[in-house]
Amino acid sequence: MKKVTKQTYINWYKDMLFWRKFEDKLASVYIQQKVRGFLHLYNGQEAVLAGALHAMDLSKDKMITAYRNHVQPIGMGVDPKKVMAELYGKATGTSKGMGGSMHIFSKEHGFYGGHGIVGGQIPLGAGIAFGDKYKGSDGVTLTCFGDGAARQGSLHETFNMAMLWKLPVVFIVENNGYAMGTSVERTANHTDIWKLGLGYEMPCGPVDGMNPIKVAEAVDEAIQRARRGEGPTFLEMKTYRYRGHSMSDAQHYRTKDEVAEYKKIDPITQILDVIKDKKYATQEEIEKINQEVKDMVKECEKFADESPYPEVSQLHDVVYEQEDYPFIK
Amino acid sequence: MAIVVNMPRLSDTMEEGVVAKWLKQVGDKIEEGDILAEIETDKATMEFESFNEGTLLHIGVQEGETSPVDALLAIIGDDGEDFSAILAGASP
Predict the structure, then answer these.
(1) N or C: where does chain B have the smaller number of CB atoms within 10 Å of the terminal CB?
(2) Residue B45 contacts by C-beta under 8 Å, 6 or more apart in sequence?
(3) Hey, is the C-beta of B45 within 8 angstroms of any chain A C-beta?
(4) Are A121 and A128 spatial neighbours (Cβ–Cβ below 8 Å)?
(5) In what order do the strands lie in the sheet with B45-49?
(6) Cα–chain-centroid distance for residue A48?
(7) Residues of A at the B interface, defined by Cβ within 8 angstroms
(8) How far is residue A74's CA from residue A18's CA, in Å, rounded to a whole number?
(9) What is the pTM of this model?
(10) B46 touches chain A (CB under 8 A)
(11) CB–CB of A296/A80 below 8 Å?
């Protein structure tokens, strides 16, 4: 694994803070109807992405996830202004404004979405890994899903085939405690989702999903295993989300005390504490980062606000290949 | 500068909201993330957090009242700021 240095901590702090503020901005523009449809925010789960990215080789590794998917492409190199514009439904967005919140994609940066069907991306992720193996690349695909999706039958079929063919894939369940409003305790007779790997003899285990270092170590081990041709790993990130499942979630299924408890082990605060303790940055430098993050978010909002909506003619652009649509006369 | 806070659209199907309870009163200091009010939507009663900071200058929808999404709900600004121009320009 790449060494975790002073600069790694600074980058983690800045990236995670930016992701958090980016999502906060989306919440505030959603209620003004600038962003429509559903909106699922990543607040609280940032350590999973920060740690995973540290372990990945972005020149060849790929990622696929569900609909909580705004900040992953940003972490992989997609221009955040384009992600914001996509959420606004603008022509300058990652999918020309036709995908929206749940469908961010970037083939260029190896980010394969952005899927609205719960658990639908689990077999797709194994398929991308199959593609790499078939073509002889040593790229690895990180396939992420939530604790709700872990209860889908497609997970079992995929696990079986991924082990049988030793596919280069890392399955990551981001267990934030709740499948919409249903707690993990209420969906199975035990709460250790990682144990689902045992039946397939897939290397598996739990990871502290609030700490980027723990995540990076676990994901690195899994990626190296896959690169060596030894097949998949299943990791359960024990994490938490501070906001509702989506914006329209009144969160009556949990207490405010529970949310407050998790905020004590907030990933951003944990990293900032290390930076302060080890004097990796001065207070002045930290404030400079905070200001840069604010400005970056503002820039994204401005870009999205000022971008045009797609032309009506674009509606057919991805439906038929030929210019003369046979059914529209 | 005073900021107008409109009745938020808290769910994709919400068209109007009822202010179930104000948790802040005119004159209160507001921090980003503070819960301003509880708002009843077509689905549930939800907490409405502030994305702005300042002083709560004006309440446009009283407790128990219903108003459509985007109607003037509150004005947040600096202490003692004159917001009469905003009120004059706001739709009834």
Answers:
(1) C
(2) A250, B20, B38, B39
(3) yes
(4) no
(5) B45-49, B35-40, B16-22, B66-68
(6) 8
(7) 24, 27-28, 30-33, 36-38, 247-248, 250, 252
(8) 10
(9) 0.93
(10) yes
(11) yes
Residues of B whose CB is below 8 A from A33 = 9, 69-70
Closest Cβ–Cβ partner in A24, A248, A250 for B12: A248
Instruction: Please count the residue pairs, one from chain A and one from chain B, whose beta carbons lie less than 8 angstroms apart.
Output: 31
Per-residue HEC secondary structure of B22-41 comes to: ECCCCCCEECCCCEEEEEEC
- Residue A194, helix vs strand vs coil: helix
A31 contact partners, CB below 8 Å, separation of at least 6: A247, B8, B9, B10
- Chain B's closest residue to A25, CA to CA, is B51
Residues of A in Cβ contact (< 8 Å) with B43: 248, 250
Q: What is the pLDDT of residue A269?
A: 97
CATH of the domain at B67: 2.40.50.100
B16 in contact with A, Cβ within 8 Å = no
pLDDT digits (tens, 9 = 90+) for A73-117: 999 999 999 999 999 999 999 999 999 999 999 999 999 999 999
Nearest CB among A28, A36, A250 relative to B44 is that of A250
Using the Cβ of B43 and the Cβ atoms of chain A, whether some distance falls under 8 Å is answered with yes
CB atoms within 10 A of CB A287: 11
Question: Residue B70 is part of which domain span?
Answer: 3-89
Taking only the tens place, the pLDDT of each residue in A192-231 is 999 999 999 999 999 999 999 999 999 999 999 999 999 9
d(CA A141, CA A65): 11
pLDDT in tens, chain B (92 residues): 799 999 999 888 899 999 999 999 999 999 999 999 999 998 889 999 999 999 999 999 999 999 999 999 999 999 989 998 888 876 54
Give the alpha-carbon dihedral of A205, A208, A210, A215, to 10 degrees. -60
Q: How many domains is chain B partitioned into structurally? A: 1
CB within 8 Å of B50: residues ≥ 6 apart: B5, B30, B31, B32, B33, B34, B35, B36, B76
Question: Do A209 and A144 meet the contact criterion of CB atoms below 8 Å apart?
Answer: no
pLDDT of A234 over the 90 cut: yes
- Does the beta-carbon distance from A248 to B11 stay under 8 Å? yes
Name the CATH superfamily for A6-316. Thiamin diphosphate (ThDP)-binding fold, Pyr/PP domains (3.40.50.970)
